[in-house]
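Workshop exercise sheet. Pairs work together: one partner reads the sequence aloud, the other fills in the structure field after running the prediction. Swap roles for the next sheet.
Pair: D.N. / O.F.
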Amino acid sequence: MLTLLNNARIVISLQQVRIVFLVLCFLVLITIAASLNLSSEQMNIEVLKSLAIFLVGVFAATIANSTGAGGGIVFLPVFMSLGFSVTESLATSFAIQCFGMTSGSLSWMIHAHKEKSCFKTHWEQLYPILFIAVLGSCTGLLLAQAYFPKDALNIELLFSIFSLLVGLFILYRTLMNKGQYRKSNILNKKEIIGFMVVSLVGGAITALLSIGIGELLAIYLIWLGYRVNFAIAVAVCVTAMSVLAAVPYYIFQDPAINLSLLLFVAPGALIGGYFANRLTLYLGAYRVKIFISLWIILSACVYFFT
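Structure field:
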């Protein structure tokens, strides 16, 4: 009974945090709109042009938060196809994900504590694993931002290769290990070291591509035998913290974050993040893993054949 009450209190607290977060997002977007100083005529044109971009935000955040893949899996190719530079595409992708992935992470945390009273062992290692993953990811990301020469790299090619390898691996593991899960969710020493390495590498890749940490964490946890919902929840939460850590690097660069694009895509990302975990629970673990792999493979092929 005490556990039930504690979980109920945490759920209520998280729901309050989500309300505060949404209010802050609203204030930020209002401030951005005011700073752009658009006339009513320009605003009407922007709204018409950006309706499709808004829907991209909904779609990308839904994909990202229902699979654990970062929103950059959609945003980066879309923005670059629209003619934005690599830096602007990366910066804007990170900024939008701050809205969408944080929204999704709060939804997953609320779901985790709702289930914890009935499936305690399923979620008991959530916070220790999150701590290790966030520490490793943010360290790798910040080091990569500081020392990796992004201008000298072919981001499109790296994005394609990484996406293709990730998608094929997830598809293989899903087809070969349907319904097999580990009995204990506690990591041993070797798994902890592996988890730290994966997080560090994933963070570094994320700095370059705006994707990476979520995909690698989901793969590693599924490979270790964790349930898909747990793997996705961890991937979404760590991605949210990683993109928040990535944005300050771009704030004072010019050009970097495209505020006009952010203004219209971020609300869609908030909506997609809010509903994404419901989609995952509705579809079921096996279908979600198949969908993850096929979508990632498709996104990679778009670059290879265009």
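Discussion prompt: The longest helix spans residues 2-36. What would you look at next?
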